[in-house]
Amino acid sequence: MRIRYDRERCVGSGACAFTLPDIFDQDEDDGRVLVLVERPGSERRKAVEDVAASCPVFALTVEDD
Q1: How many domains does the chain have?
Q2: Per-residue confidence of the chain (65 residues) as pLDDT tens digits?
Q3: What Pfam family does this protein match (any one) (predicted)?
Q4: Domain containing 55: what range?
Q5: Which residue in 10, 28, 42, 45 has its CB near the most CB atoms, within 10 A?
Q6: CA torsion 58→12→35→57, rounded to 10°?
Q7: What is the pTM of this model?
């Protein structure tokens, strides 16, 4: 599994960083998403998919390797 993200689309809501702070963070300068772990283990797939689905601007997607 791999996390893809579109920083230009991100509006900095912080939902991803708040929900999964070990995988996502926010840039201190512009508040946009930072992905700390682009390939989390498969045991985190459901949680990452839920966060991606909750992104208000759909800036996150989950892909198979």
Answers
A1: 1
A2: 999 999 999 999 999 999 999 999 999 999 999 999 999 999 999 999 999 999 999 999 999 98
A3: Fer4_13
A4: 2-63
A5: 10
A6: 0
A7: 0.92
